Structure formats: C-alpha cells, structure tokens
Q: What sequence folds into this?
C-alpha cells in the first residue's frame, strides 16, 4: 500500500454553507480514482482543494507526506507536483501550442529550453498534435485544445493528475480522442483523480469509483460492483439517470394517428 | 477660396502643427506612464495609494481639460510656481489622459479571464510568474482598443491649448481670422492639419487593434 495522496477529514464551506463535509480519501501510487455525482455536489471543489486553489476550513490534504495548505508560502512548489486539467482547457491564447506546453517547465522548473522543447514535441506527437506546434489555441478544435492541456500538465511530471470533467465542453465526436489519451495514461500507471460524467469511460479507466453527493462520499467501490451492484439507494437512483427506458412503439403510433 | 492666402499662411500653420504634435505626444507619453503605474496600483489594491489613485481618476475624468489647464496655468503661480504655457499644456494633457489611461489599462488587467490565473497557478507558477507571463501580455492586447481611442481623443483635446496662449493650430487659426478675416481659408487649413495629425493615428491604431484582437480572440 503505496499511498501518495491522502485527504483527512476535509471540510469546505462558503460562508455558512457546507460544500464538503469530512471527506476522507486515500489514493495509492498508480491508482485511478474516478469521482461521480450529481451537478453541484462538490466534485470540482474537492479537486480544487487538492491543489490549494480553494481554502479549506477543516482537515488536511497530504501529498506524499507534505501538507498542502493554501496559506503556505511555497504552495506553488506543491502545485508543481500536482497536475490539473480543467473543463474549459484554459490554454494561454497569446502563446503558440509549443509555448503553451514549454512555458511552465522553463519558467517554473528552470529547465533548459532545448531539452524542454524536445520533450514537448515528443509529447505532442504522442497525442497526435505535432503538426500544430506553431499554431495558436484559437486555431484548434476543442478536442485538440484539451489534448494540449493534458500535455501541458504532463510535461511538469506531476505525481498526481487531476482531471475535472475534461470532456464536458466537447462535441460528442471529440470526446473519444481525449479519453483515449487518458486511458493510455492510466495504462502506463499514472496516478489520477478524475471527475467525469462519462459512465462508460469511468467503468473502463477506474480502479476505484467514488460517489459524491451532498458534500459527502456516499459510496465507493471497484467499478464492477459500483456500477452493477450499487449498495445505496442514492447511487442506484443516480446511475438510473444515465439510462433511458425504451419507448413503447405502439404508443407513439397511437398518438400519431 | 484664395490659394495664394493659403500658401502664405502655410508656414505659420506648419509651425503650429509641429508645436501641437510635440505637446500632444509629450502629454500622451505622460498619460501612458501615469496610466500604467496607477493601473498596477489599483489592480494590486496597494493600500492608501490606491485610494488616492481613485480620487485622482474621478477628479480628472470629470472636469474639462480647459478647467484643468486654467488651474495649472493661472493657479500654480499664485502659490509661487510658475510654469510655461508649453509645459502646462503637456502636463495638463498628461494628467487628463492619465485618468483615462489608468482606467483602460486597469480594465485590461481585469478583463483577463480568472480561469487563466487558475490554470497558471495549477502549473506551479508563482504570482509574479503568472503576472509577467500570462496576465500582462493578455491585458496589453485587451486594452489596445481603449488606448487607441484615448490617444485620438487626447490629440483632439489639444485644441483647447489656445486658451492658455499656446500657439497651437487652433490659436493660429483664430489669430489669423481675427487679423485678416480670411475665415474660409483659415478654417480649411485648420481642418486639413487636424486630419494630417489624426489620420495616421487612426489608421495605425486600427491595424494594431486588429492584431491585438486576432491575438486574443482569433477574429
Ligand atoms: N465561490 C463560490 N461561492 C459560493 N458557493 C460556491 C462557490 N463555488 C461553488 N459553490 C457551490 O459549491 C457547490 C459545489 O460546486 P462544484 O462546482 O464543486 O460542483 P460540481 O460537483 O463540480 O458540479 P458540476 O458537476 O456541475 O461541475 C455548488 O452548490 C456551488 O453552487
Ligand atoms: Mg464541476
């Protein structure tokens, strides 16, 4: 049991309104944890607490023995070790794709430009975007931008990668190209915490699935059990919202007559 | 229209034109300097100084340049500080323009999407790296249209310099009309020289605006 990330009794409030209540979670090295739950249940907030983008009121986040604290001076040092990709890609519009990718390693990690560029090109090639290296984000499709955003996070060699609904803003035909990249990252043993509404993808990629509702972890389990034998009534109801009943054909015909 | 009159007035107009451009652009340079500094002060909410900056912006945005020039030109000597008409024109224009430029640069800084900040922070950037590499370049592009508009506005505002006896274009035209009554020729020259002064700025400004827009939004 090779723990890399631990969340201890984490509580998050806006004013008096509790968003997350006493969340406990431990992530092992190489594990892929998928978080699902209804809109507004606090999934994004939880991810943002993990890299200190949100202050927390109680509890702590521990990355490999080091506490991540939004008020800490060297928070940026901890953030180097946690990559995050957002729903809206948020590439830097004024920089080319290559510069988007190389900016942080050069500025933040002070690595050599030539070495960083070589790595960036290799990573862009891996996601099929080498030919776009001199383009600007505005010239790319949503799916392409999101793959660049993944590369931009990867080049920092994060120990944990956080993905927040990275396909939610994409047209359906682009979802696949992005999720395939994530699947390949999972195969090579990356530690990831993923928030998604794509249940099929969750089933395929997860080592463990967590159901978050009302700011609490309601149920968690291996993907098979989680999706096929949900224990709690609330998870059952949640999973049902993703399936559609077959419409009875004769009823439609009757109405049309 | 008498072209002989026009040609004979030409040297006077050229002299006035050069003076107007000189004072105008010095004033604009001052205003940009003030604007950049105060936009930072306001953006970073530097205590005390930012309160003063706010008051300055409101006072100078909401009073006419003419009134400001009178204050500087006739007011300062009363407290023992006399100032030449040229310096007064440049400083007055700079202070007026500074209030506008402050707002333009500040809104440029504010217009950079907060998600840019988050994605930069998530990459481990410090606040300083974030500001230098992500916020500032985008803010510059975003504030270009407002700054171009300010420059054109300020160049036109130079026409009130005549009120403090600066021999600018307006002064020269009024002077000549008063002396010789060649109203048509004088006004014709006035229009021509203002167009010569402003047209290149407008054209160049549109080009820069387009470039900045493409950089940020791609269209
Ligand atoms: N700055 C804020 N101030 C107050 N409440 C907030 C703030 N940000 C988020 N919230 C609230 O916190 C709750 C959780 O938000 P969060 O974005 O984490 O939900 P989510 O599970 O990611 O939802 P979605 O699936 O729609 O992305 C929501 O009810 C939201 O209204
Ligand atoms: Mg969310």
A:
């Amino acid at each position: 049991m090779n723990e890399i990330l631990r969340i201890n009794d984490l509580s998050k409030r806006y004013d008096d309104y509790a968003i997350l209540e006493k969340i406990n979670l431990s992530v092992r090295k190489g594990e892929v944890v998928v978080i699902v739950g209804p809109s507004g249940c606090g999934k994004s907030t939880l991810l943002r607490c993990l890299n200190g983008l949100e202050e927390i009121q109680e509890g702590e986040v521990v990355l490999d023995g080091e506490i991540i604290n939004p008020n800490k001076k060297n928070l940026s040092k901890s953030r180097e070790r946690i990559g995050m990709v957002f729903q809206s890609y948020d590439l830097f519009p004024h920089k080319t794709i290559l510069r988007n990718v190389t900016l942080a390693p050069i500025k933040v990690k002070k690595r050599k430009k030539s070495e960083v560029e070589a790595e960036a090109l290799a990573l862009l090639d891996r996601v099929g975007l080498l030919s776009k290296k001199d383009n600007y984000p505005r010239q790319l499709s949503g799916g392409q931008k999101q793959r660049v955003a993944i590369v931009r996070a990867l080049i920092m060699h994060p120990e944990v990668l956080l993905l927040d609904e990275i396909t939610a803003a994409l047209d359906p035909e682009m979802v696949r190209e992005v999720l395939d990249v994530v699947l390949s990252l999972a195969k090579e043993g990356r530690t990831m915490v993923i928030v998604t509404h794509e249940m099929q993808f969750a089933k395929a990629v997860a080592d463990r699935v967590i159901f978050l509702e009302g700011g609490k972890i309601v149920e968690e389990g291996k993907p098979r059990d989680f999706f096929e034998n949900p224990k709690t009534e609330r998870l059952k109801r949640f999973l049902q919202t993703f399936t559609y009943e077959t419409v009875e054909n004769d009823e439609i015909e009757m109405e049309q007559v | 229209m008498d072209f002989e009159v026009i040609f004979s007035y030409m040297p006077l107009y050229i002299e006035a034109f050069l003076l107007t451009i000189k004072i105008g652009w010095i004033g604009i340079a001052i205003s940009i300097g003030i604007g950049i500094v105060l936009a930072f002060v306001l953006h970073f909410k530097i205590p005390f100084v930012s309160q003063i900056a706010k008051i300055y912006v409101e006072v100078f945005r909401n009073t006419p340049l003419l009134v400001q020039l009178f204050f500087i030109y006739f007011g300062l000597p009363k407290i023992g500080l006399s100032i030449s008409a040229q310096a007064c024109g440049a400083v007055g224009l700079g202070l007026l323009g500074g209030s506008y430029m402050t707002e333009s640069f500040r809104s440029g800084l504010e217009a950079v999407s907060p998600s840019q900040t988050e994605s930069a922070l998530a990459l481990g950037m410090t606040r300083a790296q974030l500001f230098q590499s992500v916020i500032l370049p985008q803010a510059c592009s975003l504030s270009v249209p407002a700054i171009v508009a300010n420059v054109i506005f300020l160049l036109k505002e130079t026409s009130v310099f005549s009120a403090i006896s600066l021999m600018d274009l307006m002064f020269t035209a009024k002077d000549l009309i008063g002396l010789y009554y060649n109203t048509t020729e004088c006004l014709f020259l006035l229009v021509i020289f203002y167009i010569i002064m402003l047209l290149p700025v407008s054209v160049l400004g549109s080009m820069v605006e387009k470039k900045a827009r493409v950089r940020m939004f791609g269209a």
